[in-house]
Amino acid sequence: xxxxxxxxxxxxxxxxxxxxxxxxxxxxxxxxxxxxxxxxxxxxxxxxxxxxxxxxxxxxxxxxxxxxxxxxxxxxxxxxxxxxxxxxxxxxxxxxxxxxxxxxxxxxxxxxxxxxxxxxxxxxxxxxxxxxxxxxxxxxxxxxxxxxxxxxxxxxxxxxx
Length: 161
What we know:
GO terms for molecular function: peroxidase activity. By secondary structure, the chain is of the alpha+beta class. The protein has four helices and six strands, in the order βββαβααββα. Helices cover 25% and strands 17% of the residues. The longest helix has 12 residues, at 40-51.
C-alpha cells in the first residue's frame, strides 16, 4: 500500500484518500492551533500560494498528541485556520501521528529518516514530510524548520513535477 490508498476524512468529514494528490509534490504537516509553532501556518500558506500552480500542495493534519494543543473539533479548527491564516490548502481530520493509534498515512511517513538519519516518531507539532509526485518521502524536516527555510524551499523545487 502507498500513502495514496489509505482512507482518511477531510476536515469537513468527507471520506477520501490521497489519490487526488497523486502526481503532485506534497508537504505533509501535522498541525496545531495552540502551539508556539502555530505561526508556521503563515509560511505554509505562502508556500501553497507560491507553488500550487506548479503541481504542489501542502496537506495539513491536525493532531492533539503534543501538549493537547489542538483540542478543538473540526469546525473550530477550520474557522481558526480561515480566520487567522487564510488557509487555502487541504486540511484533514484530526489524527494521531504516533503510538498505537497512529494513522496509516503517518505509519508510511514516519518510516522516512530526517537529514541526520533518524526515523520514527514525530517529535512535535509542525513536523514536515516532503513527498515526491510518485509518493516517495524524499525529505523530513523537524518542527523547528520554518516552512520558508531555504533548504526546505530548494527541496520542494527539486521535486516539482
